Amino acid sequence: MNKKFNRNVKELFMKLLPVQIFLMLASGVSGIVNGLIVGNNLSATAMAALGLTAPLSSLLASLATIVSGGSGILCGKYMGRGEARKVNAVFSNSMLVLFSSGVVLTIVFLLFSSPIARIVGANAETLNDTVLFIQGTAIGILPLLMMPCLMTFLQMCNKPTVSLIAPVILAVSNALLCLLAVGPMKGGVFMVALASSISTFLTVGFMVVYLLMNKDLVRFDMKDMDMSMIKEMLILGSPGSLAGIMYSTRNVFINSHASAVGGISAVNALAILGSCDCFFDCLNVGAGSTLSMLASVFIGEKDVRSLKDLMKFTIFTGLCMCAVKICVATFFGRNIAMLFGAKGAAIESTWMLLFLYNLAAPFNIFTLTFMGVYQNLGRVTFCNMLYPVNCLIVPLFCCAVLSRVFGVNAIFACYMIAEIVTLICMYVYACMKKKALAKDLDDMLYLDKQLDASSKYSISIREIPEVVNVAQRIQDYCLENGVDKRRSMLAGLCMEEMAGNIVEHGFTKDNKSHTIDVFACVEEDKSVRLRLRDNCVPFDPHSKLEMYENDDPFKNVGIKLVSKIAKEMNYQTTFGMNVLNITL
Fold first, then answer.
1. CA distance from start to end of the chain
2. In what order do the strands lie in the sheet with 516-522?
3. Cα separations (Å) of 212 from 203, 215, 479, 554?
4. pTM to 2 decimals?
5. If DSSP codes are grouped into helix, strand and coil, which group holds residue 570?
6. How many C-beta atoms lie closer than 10 Å to residue 85's C-beta?
7. Within 13 Å, how many C-alpha atoms sit on residue 230's CB side?
8. Where are the beta strands (DSSP E) in 280-426?
9. Yes or no: is domain 455-583 CATH 3.30.565.10?
């Protein structure tokens, strides 16, 4: 496996994956805690109010996903292009959209809490508690919308530790405040909802204070407001949001048909799945989120080689995790059912549901991988066409048609069938684009000319002797692609100087194994773009130039030479990796 995948791609993926998994788990734990506290301390109508307002929480999460997903893709692309200043612009536009939306939705939820309660299904018995829960939730809408986006930017700025601390603050403060609300304060459903809102404010407050104290990260600036950027961000983020809305709708239909076909045991099984699905989904969703973040960077860099390695490693890692999930569901599914109080027929129904649900996971890994890349490539319309197939059409067919023949198991199998049909749709579309059978990853991606792997040069360096050879190859590559002899020679020289500097100084700073990913691209105007990505200690050549500007002229000769030759030289850290972009 070590030689099969690009080392830096593996390192980036495995660095971000645990954070994404933990974020998913933390949000799920908060939901479980709220359910346990309300169910064991308040009335049955309070618990019903919690369930009735669940679609509203899903809707708010979907709205937040539009901005957080779109801004993450844009930031990755700008990082990949070496346009670090535009990352601040994306942050500013994101915060403006989220703040405005949060204020408007808070007012709407507070003023129209009663009509909203009736829309989600509250009757005369549950109306009062549902209204109170909506009002308590409304107070925390603003931080609830901002939190996912702030998490995204902190990870983009290589602050995974802060991203891990924030959900811990959310989960712990939520549990303590909710217990305080129903305990010493003897409050009702409004106090529980308010406690959750306060915990969200505390979490977002922590992240905002951290960003304000570290001004070298991202910052808000009204001068960066750009309506065209906001439009692009919302379009790119729309598929994930659409999926969230459709999944919520799907679950309503599945619950309804399962009740009619399988009775109370099937409904109980779905309720148990709903309570613990975050523990099963966190692995797949974490892998998909990690891929999406990194894919945006590689696409921005036009680094098709790293993009393919990322996809292959995501699928490989995802399938390994899926095997573990299937084993857990197979051997411990009945124990999980009994843990949630299932008895008799409900135990077997839950076991079958958990088994079939997790059997869909391997197919889902392929779906998430390709959908994540398609979305980053800007194929939003195609993604938005696939989500109804996956989220609504196939599940409804299983519920309304197949269940009449195969019973409730057809409903339980709808998750797996939906993933298989979605993958078939992807393959058929790829064949249509190629006008022949798709035979490999290149055919499935059907990249345009700007990302065509044949017009790029990329390789990884692990030893000093490789530096000179790579420099010569880059010089030859430039000549073959119409660059004049002088600039071709300078391109090779720049690569040799900077790569040699990294190998000589960065590789020897510690006892770890290091790699430089070298990438060269000749643009349409015949300008040459070079990129070096390494996993050594942080090293900014600009700071070195400033440090020794008035010192010995023989110090850092290579860096000084490249800075004079290059039309542009940009350095940044991307997810903890050093990335140097040079334009000639």
1. 36
2. 456-461, 516-522, 528-534, 577-583, 568-574
3. 15, 6, 48, 39
4. 0.76
5. strand
6. 10
7. 12
8. none
9. yes
Backbone dihedral angles phi then psi of residue 570, each to the nearest 5 degrees: -120, 135
**Exposure string for 514-547, b = 16+ CB within 10 A, e = fewer:** bbbbbbbbbeeeeebbbbbbbbbeebebeebeee
Position 419 scores a pLDDT of: 95
The two tokens of residue 70 are 């779109």
Contact 538, 578 (CB under 8 A): yes
Which amino acid makes up residue 427?
Answer: Y
Answer positive or negative: Cα dihedral of 506, 508, 509, 511: positive
**Tokens representing residue 27 in the block:** 């949000």
In the numeric block, the tokens 């790699």 are attached to 515
Bridge partner list, 579: 533, 572
Summarize pLDDT for 174-198 with one digit per residue, the tens.
889 988 888 777 777 888 889 889 9
Tell me how far the alpha carbon of residue 244 is from its chain's centroid.
Answer: 14
Which range of 51-60, 92-101, 492-501 scores highest in mean pLDDT? It is 92-101
75-79, 361-365, 401-405: lowest mean pLDDT where? 75-79
Find out whether 128 and 59 touch, Cβ atoms under 8 Å.
no
Task: Write down the domain spans for the chain.
Answer: 17-225, 239-451, 455-583
CA–centroid distance for 101 within its chain: 22
Distances (CA, A) of 147 to 26, 45, 53, 141, 424: 13, 30, 20, 10, 35
Section 285-309 average pLDDT: 84
Q: Which two tokens stand for residue 495?
A: 């690569």
Chain CA centroid to CA 406, Å = 36
Beta bridge partners of 460: 517
